[in-house]
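quick q for whoever's on today - can somebody do inverse folding on this one?? i tried earlier but teh output was garbage lol. tokens:
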């Protein structure tokens, strides 16, 4: 193996992570481009490994570390987060680095001991604590609920490198390591925020404000998934502030499913009404679009219009699945509306409205619901409904 398997971010700070080219389902989030699990080795007079990788890739991480140092010489292993994609190689590394201390938060300690039932030598840290490696200082900043209660950021003071674990990540497998080398990185960062961090948006904003207030300068951000932000870390920080505040634009997303295409006909007529007002609109059929991809479109949309045929007095199952998922992600500042067709008795549209209300959407009423196949008069009403939605979005 040549030295090309590792990447030096700054002198003495190395990426020693792994690339998971084949993962397509990350606990329910569709990862069509795979992902990476990023570990970082910080070499001062003492040596620290920041986070590990999913256990199935432990040997690959070890090979990278061995290109730099003897892993037995690692003095500290920092666990920024309990979740197993970052912690499940801890046993492997701590078996080899027998003298290493495991450094983590109090909350993470509880989780790690539960998951791994081990007798590790654990040192707990809190915000403001420093670890002097000799020539390199690690400073810790707890980041509870970004995105688990145990989450923590590690900052390498001398190099102004922030290692925020899941924060600022993207699920993308690539042989490149830096943002300026990967053209679709913002797209993947958007999907990642929408599916992982959106529920904690107010905490995202307050954490960034705290970092600014503390005067922490950032030259580079090395998240635990995807590429490293080196060209302009401010770009992703600004995007997080925008998403965190729930900023939206004049855009409508129509999310629907259909049985015999009546609801689909309605969706298209509504779309044409919206479009006629010059408002951006996207049409996403649930059986053809994964819920996690749809959330990337929802994040900056002012309105989400949801359509479903009635099946057994309720929503079509894909619609129910999507609304449950979206409710958990707690998008802010959205307008919502419902539409759909039915055969002999309705029910889907009312059920959608009740879910949208539970998600704190501002509802546009009355909803549209038509029997069997919409007539040309009813199609006109769908178009007009689209026009009304677009005008509301423009206000
Ligand atoms: Fe990448 Fe929360 O684990």
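ok took a stab at it. sequence:
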């Amino acid at each position: 193996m040549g030295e090309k398997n590792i990447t030096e971010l700054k002198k003495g700070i190395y990426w020693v992570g792994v690339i998971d080219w084949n993962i397509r389902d990350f606990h329910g989030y569709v990862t069509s481009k795979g992902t990476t699990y990023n570990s970082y080795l910080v070499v001062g007079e003492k040596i620290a490994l920041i986070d590990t990788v999913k256990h199935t890739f432990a040997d690959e991480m070890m090979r990278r570390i061995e290109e730099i140092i003897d892993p037995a010489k690692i003095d500290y292993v920092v666990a920024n987060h309990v979740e197993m994609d970052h912690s499940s190689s801890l046993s492997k590394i701590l078996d080899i680095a027998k003298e290493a201390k495991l450094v983590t938060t109090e909350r993470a300690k509880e989780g790690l001991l539960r998951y791994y039932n081990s007798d590790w030598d654990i040192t707990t840290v809190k915000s403001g604590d420093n670890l002097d490696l000799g020539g390199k200082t690690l400073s810790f900043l707890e980041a509870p609920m970004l995105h688990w209660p145990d989450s923590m950021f590690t900052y390498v003071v001398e190099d102004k490198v922030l290692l925020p674990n899941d924060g600022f990540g993207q699920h993308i497998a690539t042989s490149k390591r830096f943002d300026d080398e990967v053209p679709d990185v913002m797209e993947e960062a958007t999907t990642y925020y929408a599916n992982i961090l959106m529920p904690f948006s107010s905490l995202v904003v307050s954490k960034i404000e705290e970092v600014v207030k503390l005067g922490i300068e950032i030259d580079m951000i090395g998240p635990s998934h995807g590429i490293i932000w080196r060209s302009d870390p401010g770009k992703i920080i600004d995007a997080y502030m925008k998403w965190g505040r729930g900023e939206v634009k004049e855009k409508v997303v129509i999310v629907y499913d259909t049985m015999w295409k009546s609801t689909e006909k309605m969706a298209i007529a509504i779309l044409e009404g919206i479009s006629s007002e010059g408002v951006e609109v996207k049409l996403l059929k649930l059986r053809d679009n994964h819920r996690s991809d749809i959330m990337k479109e929802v994040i900056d949309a002012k309105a989400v219009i949801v359509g479903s045929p009635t099946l057994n007095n309720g929503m079509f199952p894909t619609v129910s699945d999507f609304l449950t998922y979206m409710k958990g992600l707690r998008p802010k500042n959205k307008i919502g509306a419902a539409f759909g067709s039915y055969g002999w008795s309705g029910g889907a549209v009312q059920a959608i409205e009740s879910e949208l209300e539970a998600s704190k959407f501002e509802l546009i009423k009355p909803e549209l619901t038509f029997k069997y196949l919409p007539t040309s008069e009813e199609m006109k009403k769908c178009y007009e409904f689209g026009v009304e939605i677009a005008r509301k979005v423009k206000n």
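fwiw The two ends are 60 Å apart (CA to CA). also The chain has two domains: 3-244, 252-394. so keep that in mind when u check it
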